[in-house]
Write a structure and sequence with these properties.
CATH architecture of the largest domain: 3-Layer(aba) Sandwich
Shape: globular
CATH class of the largest domain: Alpha Beta
Largest sheet: 5 strands, parallel
Order of helices and strands: HEHEHHEHHEHEHHHHHEHHEEH
Bound molecules: adenosine-5'-triphosphate, magnesium ion
Radius of gyration: 23 Å
Number of helices: 15
Structural class: alpha/beta
Number of domains: 3
Number of strands: 8
CATH superfamily of the largest domain: P-loop containing nucleotide triphosphate hydrolases
Distance between the termini: 56 Å
CATH topology of the largest domain: Rossmann fold
């Protein structure tokens, strides 16, 4: 019989870093067609031409960031004349911050902080690219964070029109967007120069989730730490959330829970208690990608618990000033994300009498919405 208790200095984790979100997996499977499209789009850069602009779209946790990072890794190994910069737009929410980040990555240090104009930063970036004969590809990740005050239009415009003010620069853009916030309409002046190839990242099927998660288990834990049954429970939760991050987080938290009990294997109970935390992580990420109107609807519902579409609309209209058509579209989106449940069969005036129910705990929702 193997010992069932863990000594104080023992661990279940063979390679803990596999359970961090910024870890780039060696085995990146089930995304062949997306990777092929990305490679197709960057290929012109290998021949000294500007790459194609692309837009990666899909629900949270479907491998968009990872796919772009993989392609960038590949380029940095095989294409000396191409420089790639991956920008996290949540951390850099203005045009100035984004260009400072690009400057930093190209030139190796941040621009001097005081009093440098945007124009000067762009000049330096362009000068670097031209003098070193480099082609630049910028990935703007989670661009929904730039939707405020049309910042995204400014950023795209400045990047894609740089060749006019600085002839010889070759810059292209890959935007990454969580599908939850797809309703942004680019300014026409940007629309005419951006024209991205769209690459869609669908949710993973149950079997795909299982193969990805079981891969992490094999590489990341010691043998025998996680039984097939326990893994299946984790895959069920992950599939329900539709977000692979929930699964990776569950693997990590449930194993930590087992360690805390000094057990050598993860139990179903460890998974249940880990899920209380992991589902909050998912909820807050999902809500962060929503617009203020949608968040207002969630806040109203969290306060009322359950009510009719008409009642929620009245409160929504009062707090946002928006009309019924917009409200109706937003309800559809929240329902598609399974944040709310609506009784679609109810008749009544434009369905205003149908009941709407929040699918998450009201307290949990209130703790993450912006009001
Ligand atoms: N096909 C895959 N194989 C292995 N791991 C994967 C795969 N797809 C995603 N992952 C892992 O799942 C996690 C989430 O993936 P990623 O960050 O790329 O998702 P995303 O689509 O960018 O999500 P979001 O829209 O929320 O930013 C990461 O830790 C990544 O390593
Ligand atoms: Mg991402």
């Amino acid at each position: 019989m193997p010992a069932k208790t863990l000594l104080w200095d023992q661990t279940l984790f063979r390679r803990g870093e596999l359970f961090e979100f910024d870890y780039i997996p060696e085995h990146f499977v089930h995304r062949d067609s997306q990777l092929r499209s990305l490679m197709f789009g960057v290929r012109p850069a290998l021949r000294g031409l500007r790459a194609l602009n692309m837009m990666c779209v899909g629900p949270p946790g479907t491998g968009k960031t990872t796919a772009v990072r993989k392609v960038f890794e590949e380029l940095s190994e095989h294409a000396q004349d191409v420089v790639t910069v991956h920008v996290n737009c949540q951390a850099n929410q203005t045009r100035y911050a984004i260009f400072s980040e690009i400057f930093h990555r190209l030139i190796g240090h941040a621009p001097p902080t005081s009093g440098v104009s945007f124009r000067k930063i762009l000049d330096e970036i362009a000068k670097y690219l031209i003098q070193n004969e480099k082609i630049l590809i910028v990935a703007l990740d989670d661009i929904n964070y730039l939707f405020h005050e049309k910042e995204v239009d400014n950023v795209l415009y400045s990047l894609l029109r740089a060749y006019e003010t600085h002839p010889g620069t070759k810059i292209s853009v890959i935007t990454i967007l969580s599908d939850n916030s797809l309703n942004y309409i680019f300014d026409p002046k940007v629309g005419s120069i951006f024209l991205p190839e769209e690459i869609f990242f669908p949710r993973y099927a149950w079997d795909e989730l299982k193969s990805i998660l079981s891969d992490r288990v094999k590489l990341g834990f010691y043998q025998g730490v996680m039984s097939e049954d326990v893994l299946d429970t984790i895959v069920d939760y992950t599939s329900e959330a539709g977000d692979l991050r929930v699964g990776i987080d569950l693997l990590k938290r449930s194993a930590l829970g087992a360690e805390q009990r000094a057990s050598t294997s993860v139990s179903q109970d460890d998974v249940q208690s880990a899920y209380q935390k992991s589902r909050m992580l998912h909820l807050s990420r999902m809500i962060a990608t929503l617009g203020s109107g949608e968040q207002a609807i969630l806040a109203i519902l969290a306060e009322k618990k359950e009510s009719t579409a008409g009642e929620v609309y009245n409160a929504f209209h009062e707090s946002t000033g928006l009309g019924y058509t917009r409200f109706h579209t937003m309800l559809g989106k929240l329902a598609a994300l399974r944040l709310i449940d609506t009784d679609l069969t109810a008749a009544g005036m434009h369905g205003r009498s149908r009941r709407i129910k929040l699918m998450y705990d009201a307290e949990d929702v209130l703790s993450v919405v912006h009001r």
